[in-house]
Amino acid sequence: MTTSLASCALSLLLLLSLQYHSQASDTLTANQQLSENQKLISQDGNFALGFFQPAALVEGSNDKWYIGIWYNKIPTQTIVWVANRGKSVSDPVSSNLIISGDGNLVLLANHSKSPIWSTNIKKNIANSSTKVVLHNSGNLIVTHDSTNSTVLWQSFDDFTDTWLPGSKLSRNKKTGVIKRMVSWKDRGDPAPGLFSIQLDPDGSPQYILLWNSSIVYWATGNWSGNAYTGVPELSPTNMYPNSGYTFQFVDHHVETYFMYTVKNDAQTFTRAILDVSGLFQTLVWTNASQAWTTFFTQPKAKCSVYGVCGENSKCTENDASSCSCLKGFTEKYPENWKLDDHTAGCRRNVPLKCGNNSSMKTKQDRFYVINSVKLPDDAQKIDAANVRACELTCLKNCSCIAYSYNGTCWFWYNHLMNLQDNIGGSTYSISIRLDASELPNSGTKKWWVTIFIIGGLIVLCFGAAILYFTHRKQRYINGLNHNDGSLINFKYRDLQFLTSNFSERLGAGSFGSVFKGVLPDATIVAVKKLEGFHQGEKQFRAEVSTIGKIHHINLIRLHGFCSKGPMRLLVYEYMPSGSLDKHLFGSSTTTLSWKIRYQIATGIAKGLAYLHEECRDCIMHCDIKPQNILLDASFVPKVADFGLAKLLGRDFSRVLTSMRGTIGYLAPEWISGEAITTKADVFSYGMMLFEIISGKRIWNIQRQAWEHFFLWWLRGSFLKEKCIHCLALS
Ligand SMILES: *[C@@H]1O[C@H](CO)[C@@H](O)[C@H](O)[C@H]1NC(C)=O
Ligand SMILES: *[C@@H]1O[C@H](CO)[C@@H](O)[C@H](O)[C@H]1NC(C)=O
Ligand SMILES: *[C@@H]1O[C@H](CO)[C@@H](O)[C@H](O)[C@H]1NC(C)=O
Ligand SMILES: *[C@@H]1O[C@H](CO)[C@@H](O)[C@H](O)[C@H]1NC(C)=O
Ligand SMILES: *[C@@H]1O[C@H](CO)[C@@H](O)[C@H](O)[C@H]1NC(C)=O
Ligand SMILES: *[C@@H]1O[C@H](CO)[C@@H](O)[C@H](O)[C@H]1NC(C)=O
Ligand SMILES: *[C@@H]1O[C@H](CO)[C@@H](O)[C@H](O)[C@H]1NC(C)=O
Ligand SMILES: *[C@@H]1O[C@H](CO)[C@@H](O)[C@H](O)[C@H]1NC(C)=O
Ligand SMILES: *[C@@H]1O[C@H](CO)[C@@H](O)[C@H](O)[C@H]1NC(C)=O
Ligand SMILES: *[C@@H]1O[C@H](CO)[C@@H](O)[C@H](O)[C@H]1NC(C)=O
After folding, report:
1. Measured from the CA of 194, which atom of ligand 5 is nearest?
2. Does the fold of domain 354-438 match that of domain 23-158?
3. For the purposes of burial, counting CB atoms within 10 Å of the CB of 23, is it exposed (0-12), middle (13-18) or buried (19 or more)?
4. What residue ranges are annotated as transmembrane (predicted)?
5. How many A from CA of 341 to the centre of ligand 5?
6. Do the Cβ atoms of 371 and 338 come closer than 8 Å?
7. Closest CA to 98 of 108, 88, 90
8. Architecture of domain 354-438 in CATH?
9. In what helix (H) or strand (E) does residue 150 lie, and over which residues does it extend?
């Protein structure tokens, strides 16, 4: 009876305490604790603090819990701070976040007395009236007075991988303390990873990105008064006026720091992070798409991030997934690889024999050659008279895993890092040591067998080629003669043939590279290889057929498409005069006459108006800029790349922001998070109109003046929606 009463009272008490916390307060005081699913929530409800598990948890580690702060109003888990980065607790029920007797905020696990994590405030500073408050800025502050003004400790001083508006990544000149932001270990593990960003310890007013705290792979360049020399786009005058962003670089006798703030009433969430891929990025939450949009990324060249692809892999710039394992190697952690984190690198499939068991006549290791590369780091110079000697010396030493010979013999021992592939103009090649079973057989056959086989193959190929070409020609001419407006579904092999194996590159747009091709009836076409594409085949066909039905004199015409495995290609009509930007800013010797400029401006407007209002499904372009306007032989403008924004879905934001300068044409609502409508295209069109008239890049002109004027112009009610129409009608 008494025991049941006691347990009843106990559960009631528990219930009450839960009740207390579920009314989420923003303050934790000395006699309270946080456990299980209890949270602190900032007054405006934007941030929450409590136990969490990373969304991208690696399988088999679901007993890892952390204390952290996240955005409370966003459906995508977005952690901005983690207390116990490297030391998880196994379950939140037996763990507590409390204020200890000495006034520190501590995390206790498994009912133990010794904390797993503590704020480590010095003794005698904190006392029993200490409390912890989660502020609207996302800052967790330990204080002990009623005005919240004495900061004993704050999470803004304890950086993880996120830089929130208002916090200072500083260097203290008196104590020498440098604050660093350190990336997560991988997407499922907040433990400190290999990449960090901090102020230059040499005292230069610049931030540097480091690998393993030792190798600098990117620097902002010195602060020049209103921007960093290496990042001119990140300056207040380059941002939209009234966007609510302010930047401040402070360098006085006590400390140096940079800080950015976002005007609160904008109701937008902005954060800067150091990603597990080593990239420093600034992201804005966009309500319209319910996703984070990246609007700033450095370094621009992904392959320049030290160790971005880990060991035994190669990095290819301008490729959607830029890391790939070398032949004979496989991803070490395929799960991480899928999450765009390649830093763990690749491992060997078959161990090297390395001359072992040579008495047993087993095959020696062999070499696999990769041409046009940037050689990996940490090469060792070896004395060798020629390439053969270089190879033999490498074979003899079991630690040698690759060599390169360019007059000097270079060896690599144990691991290969930062090998970059497909460097135009590079004469370097590297030979990678592999077990013989990884490479096709040769050498052991008698010479006449080889000759016989080669001879046979040549005869066969010849015959096949003749058959193939006659057949192909027939089919094309048939295919094209249909001429009923339907799209051609090309085979990848055919496109390879038509473009001479993608040899003549016309350019690289935001969605991929474009190559010149010739159809059998001598029609010239532009073949676009889409990058960063993750849609299924069915959806791709549906979207492409929508685009294919759109015909307008000012819109580029789609001839056909190709979809093979993960590859997606689009075949467009070819525009001999190239893109508008070449004529406006490029090396082109003839300047466009006013008549032509007028024809271009109205033509684009007609094309856009058709896309927005006259098609069956209204299409937003989302990326109007001179690079996407093509000109035919008589300078009739054609809008290119329409419909691709939808085709690429969310990844579009990545493409959009990876293009330098695109931001100049972006409507403010991309950043402010308001709904994106066709008006965003109108804004970009307006920006472009300025360039057509002035012949100068919007980027380079006194931006603020232009934009003030432009925003005023666009907001003028009489022009707001009509500007396309009036131009189109005139
Ligand atoms: C908690 O501590 C007890 C004894 O101190 C131990 O037996 C148990 O395994 C611990 N549990 C966890 C999850 O660490
Ligand atoms: C705690 O310390 C602060 C400043 O040192 C002091 O103002 C406050 O009265 C102290 N509170 C208690 C309960 O001792
Ligand atoms: C201090 O913080 C608490 C919790 O957010 C808040 O209720 C209180 O009004 C604050 N006091 C002052 C003087 O700002
Ligand atoms: C950057 O500033 C530091 C110190 O102010 C100076 O020594 C250095 O030469 C500067 N670097 C460049 C590239 O101007
Ligand atoms: C990072 O540096 C430390 C010492 O400076 C070294 O022990 C460690 O192996 C390095 N990590 C990697 C992944 O190379
Ligand atoms: C070769 O064999 C020896 C012992 O038989 C072994 O210790 C060594 O690791 C082997 N080397 C390789 C590359 O497998
Ligand atoms: C080498 O020979 C030993 C026994 O003689 C055998 O155990 C081992 O697997 C062989 N190693 C290789 C790589 O063939
Ligand atoms: C192989 O290379 C390593 C690294 O330079 C060296 O220490 C070792 O002595 C070499 N072994 C032989 C057999 O040459
Ligand atoms: C070979 O490559 C090294 C390293 O890049 C370079 O310093 C050297 O000049 C090259 N030698 C020749 C003969 O090209
Ligand atoms: C975004 O959505 C949130 C929640 O629906 C809302 O509170 C906020 O005002 C919206 N922001 C903008 C800029 O529309």
Report:
1. 13
2. no
3. exposed
4. 447-469
5. 19
6. no
7. 108
8. 3-Layer(bba) Sandwich (3.50)
9. none
- Per-residue model confidence (pLDDT) at position 650: 44
529 is in an annotated binding site: yes
665-707 confidence digits (pLDDT tens): 777 666 555 667 788 889 889 988 988 888 877 766 545 544 5
Whole-angstrom distance, CA of residue 499 vs CA of residue 595: 35
Beta bridge partners of 430: 370
CATH class of the domain defined by 23-158 = mainly beta
**Cβ proximity of 87 and 70 under 8 Å:** no
Q: Classify burial at 59, counting beta carbons within 10 Å of its beta carbon; exposed 0-12, middle 13-18, buried 19 or more.
A: exposed
Q: Per CATH, the architecture of 488-573 is what?
A: 2-Layer Sandwich (3.30)
Its CATH class, for the domain covering 160-300, is mainly beta
> Residue 593's CB: how many other CB atoms inside 10 A?
10
Has this prediction a pTM greater than 0.85? no
Contacts by 85-89 with C-beta closer than 8 Å and gap 24+? 85/160, 85/190, 85/191, 85/192, 86/191, 86/192, 87/116, 87/117, 88/63, 88/64, 89/51, 89/64, 89/65, 89/116
Q: Whose CA is nearest to atom 7 of ligand 1?
A: 110
Q: Which atom of ligand 4 is nearest to the CA of 221?
A: 13
Average pLDDT estimate for 366-394? 88
User: 480, 393, 475: which is closest to 431 by C-alpha?
Assistant: 393
Pairing of strands 524-530, 558-564: unpaired
Rounded distance, CA 556 to CA 560, Å?
12
Nearest CA among 675, 689, 681, 693 for reference residue 721: 681
CB 684 within 8 A of CB 624: yes
- Could you tell me the pLDDT band of residue 494, with boundaries at 50, 70 and 90? confident
* Residue 493, SS3 per DSSP: helix
Listing DSSP states for 280-328 in one string gives: EEEEEEETTTTEEEEEEEESSSGGGSTTTT-BTEEE-TT-SS-EEEPTT
**Whole-angstrom distance, CA of residue 398 vs CA of residue 378:** 17
Domain borders along the chain are 23-158, 160-300, 310-348, 354-438, 445-476, 488-573, 581-729
